[in-house]
Design brief:
GIY-YIG endonuclease, 5 domains, seven-stranded mixed sheet, 20 helices, Nucleotidyltransferase, domain 5, 20 strands, 621 residues, single chain
Length: 621
C-alpha cells in the first residue's frame, strides 16, 4: 500500500511495486536523470522495497530519498549471498549518495612489493591489485605506511627508484647509495640473488616473521664487533633497534587466537566508527580505524554489512574467521560472501568467551573512543568555521553571516587561453559540486580587468535568469575577487550591468600583501595573519586559483593536441579522443614509443605505426 510519502499520481512506480518478485535480489532507486540514488539487497524483494513507500519508515533520510525516486529497478539473484556480491559491484560502480560509505571514499593504502620485477620495489600504493605484486594491508593511516617504509628502507636498503628497472640513464648511482639507503643494483653493487634475499626479508617481516631478521642482525653485529669493525657494528645495532621498534608497534603475540579479524563498531546518530584488529598466526599486526557516513537510521547489521562489502572487496586477503559485535543479527549471508571472496570457508561469529571475547570488547571500546574523538574534532572544526564567519561579518561590516562565498580568479598564458573560475564555499567549507569555470570570449591580449568583468557579468546574468543550475541559481552572501582595486571596480561594474544581485557584498583580496579592498573605502584592510576570517578568504582564493589554473592547463593541452593532430594523416576526431584520453598530455603523446601507441584502445596497429613514423619522420608505415 502506498503511503503519504509517496506520490499517488505516480502510477508507473505503483505498478512496479505491485509486480515485484518475492525472491532474493538487489534493488536500485534512480532519480529523474536516471542517476542511481541507492542500491540495496534483500532476502525478499517485494516487502523490502515496498517498505520504503509505506509511509511508516522513521529512518532519517528516507523521506528525502523517496521524494527523489523516479524509477526503480530490481535484479533477481539465486541467493542472498549472491545479492551481496552484486550489491558490492553496483555500489562500487555507481557510488550512490544514499548508501553507507567510508568517509572521503578513498581507496586504502597498501605496501606493495613488485616481485615480478627483476629487482623488486617496495612502495606505497592505493592501486587496484595487479598480478606480479604482493600487497600488505590495507592500512587506514597513510602516514603510518610511509613511516614503516622509511624504517624498512633503512634496514633492508631496497631501491627507492621508480620503474621496473633500477638506476638512471647516466649509469651513475644516486645519492641514496651514498647515504646507505640503496644497495645500488643499477651498478651491480649487489647481485641479483643477494637483492632477492633482501626483498625476501622485507616480505618475511611484513608477514609477521620478525625473529629471523632480528637474529641475523644480532649475528652480524656480534661478528663486526669481534672483528673490531665498530662502525659496522653500530650500524647493525641501529638497524636492530629500528626493526625491533617497528615490530613492537606492529604486533603482540596471542598464539591461541590464530588468524582472525576482530571488528568493533560504534554508532551514534548519523555517524559510525569501525575498528579492525587483524591477527595473523596470533600476532596483532596493526589496528585499522574507519569512519562511515550516511548511517542515520540504519541498524548495526546493515552498517556492518556495508562496511564489510567495501573493506573486504578491496582487501588482498580474507582470514578464515571474522569476529563481529553482538547484536548484528544473522551473519550467514555475509559469511557466504566472504567465503566466496576468500575461496574457502570463512566463519563470521560473535565471540562469547576467552581471549577472542576480550579482543572483541577491546575493538568496541576503541571504536567508541574513535567516535567520541571524531565528534570532538568535528565540533572544534565547526566552531572554527563559525568563528571565521563571525570575524568576516565584523571586519567587513556585513549585514549577516556570509554563509555562501563565491571567489573569482583569472588564469592565462600571455593573453592566450584565458579562463575564469568560480570557487564556492558554503558554511566555510568548499562545495566543489558548485565550482564553475568560464572560457573568456572575444578577448585580445592580456586584460585582467576586462576578463574579470566578463566572467562576473556572465555569472550574475545566470542568477537573474533564474538558472536551473543550482550553482548559478543561488545568490552569494559575499563575492571575493582575486586582485586589487582594478579588479574590484571591474567586478562591481559587471554586477551592475548584469542586473546585479540583492544585497550582495563584494570585496577583493590582493595576494602580495594580503590586502582586502572594499567598495567606497580608499585604504585597504589588513588583518593579522592568524585571523580566522583572513585565513578563510585565503583558502577560497587559493581554491579559485587552483581551479582556474587546472582548467587553463586542460585547455592548453587540448589546443596542443589539436595543433599536433592537424598534420597527422589517418587521425580523425574519434581517434583524437582515444589518444587524448589514453595519454592525457601532449608531452606524453610525443614521448610515446611505438608499442605504447599500439596499446591505445581503438587505434589499429597499422595506424599506430603510421602515427609513430610521422611523429619521428621515419617514413611510412
Amino acid at each position: 500500500m502506498v503511503g503519504e510519502g509517496f506520490a499517488k499520481e505516480d502510477a508507473p512506480i505503483r505498478k512496479d511495486l505491485a509486480s515485484l518478485p518475492r525472491g532474493p535480489g538487489v534493488y536500485l532507486f534512480r532519480g529523474t536523470d536516471d542517476d542511481v540514488l541507492y542500491v540495496g539487497k534483500a532476502k525478499s524483494l517485494r516487502p523490502r522495497v515496498r517498505s520504503y513507500f509505506a509511509g511508516n519508515d522513521s529512518r532519517p533520510g528516507i523521506p528525502q530519498l523517496v521524494e527523489r525516486i523516479a524509477r526503480l529497478e530490481v535484479i533477481v539473484t539465486q541467493s542472498e549471498a549472491e545479492a551481496l556480491h552484486l550489491e558490492q559491484n553496483l555500489v562500487k560502480r555507481h557510488r550512490p549518495p544514499f548508501n553507507v560509505r567510508l568517509r572521503d571514499d578513498k581507496s586504502f593504502p597498501y605496501i606493495a612489493v613488485t616481485v615480478a620485477d627483476e629487482y623488486p620495489r617496495v612502495m606505497f600504493t592505493r592501486e587496484r591489485h595487479r598480478r606480479g605484486i604482493v600487497y600488505f594491508g590495507p592500512y587506514a593511516n597513510a602516514k603510518k605506511v610511509r613511516e614503516t617504509l622509511d624504517v624498512l628502507n633503512r634496514v633492508f636498503q631496497f631501491r627507492p627508484c621508480e620503474g621496473p628497472k633500477p638506476g638512471r640513464h647516466s649509469g651513475i648511482p644516486c645519492l641514496d647509495f651514498h647515504i646507505e639507503r640503496c644497495t645500488a643494483p643499477c651498478i651491480s653493487a649487489i647481485s641479483k640473488d643477494g637483492y632477492r634475499e633482501l626483498i625476501d626479508g622485507v616480505i618475511q617481516f611484513l608477514s609477521g616473521e620478525t625473529r629471523p631478521i632480528v637474529r641475523e642482525l644480532e649475528r652480524q653485529m656480534r661478528v663486526a664487533s669481534s672483528e673490531e669493525r665498530f662502525e659496522d657494528a653500530a650500524r647493525y645495532r641501529n638497524r636492530l633497534f629500528a626493526i625491533e621498534s617497528l615490530a613492537q608497534r606492529q604486533g603482540a603475540d596471542r598464539p591461541a587466537v590464530g588468524s582472525v579479524d576482530v571488528i568493533g563498531l560504534a554508532i551514534e546518530a548519523d555517524r559510525a566508527a569501525v575498528q579492525v584488529f587483524p591477527l595473523r598466526d596470533g600476532r596483532l599486526i596493526d589496528r585499522y580505524a574507519f569512519h562511515l557516513e550516511n548511517v542515520a537510521g540504519q541498524d548495526a547489521a546493515t552498517i556492518l554489512e556495508s562496511f564489510c562489502l567495501e573493506y573486504y572487496g578491496g582487501a588482498p586477503s580474507v582470514p578464515p574467521e571474522v569476529l563481529v559485535p553482538a547484536g548484528v543479527g544473522d551473519t550467514d549471508a555475509l559469511a557466504r560472501f566472504l567465503s566466496d571472496v576468500r575461496g574457502s570457508k570463512v566463519e563470521v561469529r560473535v565471540p562469547v568467551r576467552g581471549e577472542k571475547r576480550r579482543l572483541a570488547q577491546l575493538a568496541d571500546q576503541n571504536a567508541q573512543l574513535a567516535l567520541a574523538t571524531d565528534a570532538s574534532r568535528s565540533e572544534q572544526r565547526r566552531l572554527r568555521r563559525v568563528e571565521a564567519l563571525e570575524q568576516l561579518r565584523e571586519t567587513l561590516n556585513l549585514e549577516s553571516l556570509p554563509l555562501r562565498i563565491e571567489c573569482f580568479d583569472i588564469s592565462n598564458l600571455q593573453g592566450r587561453e584565458i579562463v575564469g573560475s568560480m570557487a564556492v564555499f558554503v558554511d566555510a567549507q568548499p562545495k566543489r559540486a558548485h565550482y564553475r569555470s568560464f572560457a573568456v570570449r572575444g578577448q585580445e591580449g592580456q586584460d585582467d580587468f576586462a576578463s574579470m568583468a566578463q566572467v562576473v557579468e556572465r555569472r550574475f546574468a545566470r542568477l537573474r535568469q533564474e538558472s536551473s543550475d543550482e550553482s548559478f541559481g543561488t545568490a552569494p552572501n559575499l563575492v571575493v575577487i582575486d586582485g586589487g582595486k582594478g579588479q574590484l571596480a571591474a567586478a562591481l561594474e559587471a554586477i551592475g550591468v548584469s542586473g546585479g544581485a540583492p544585497r550582495v557584498a563584494v570585496i577583493s583580496l590582493a595576494k602580495r600583501e594580503e590586502e582586502i579592498f572594499v567598495p567606497g573605502r580608499a585604504d585597504s584592510i589588513r588583518l593579522d595573519p592568524h585571523d580566522a576570517g583572513l585565513q578563510l578568504l585565503q583558502r577560497i582564493r587559493d581554491e579559485a586559483h587552483r581551479f582556474a589554473v587546472g582548467h587553463h592547463r586542460r585547455r592548453r593541452d587540448t589546443r596542443a593536441f589539436e595543433s599536433i593532430f592537424d598534420g597527422l594523416v589517418g587521425v580523425g576526431p574519434s581517434r583524437r579522443r582515444a589518444i587524448l584520453q589514453h595519454f592525457g598530455s601532449a608531452e606524453r603523446f610525443l614521448a610515446a614509443t611505438q608499442e605504447e601507441l599500439e596499446a591505445v584502445a581503438g587505434l589499429p596497429e597499422k595506424v599506430a605505426r603510421a602515427i609513430y613514423a610521422q611523429l619521428h619522420r621515419a617514413g611510412g608505415s
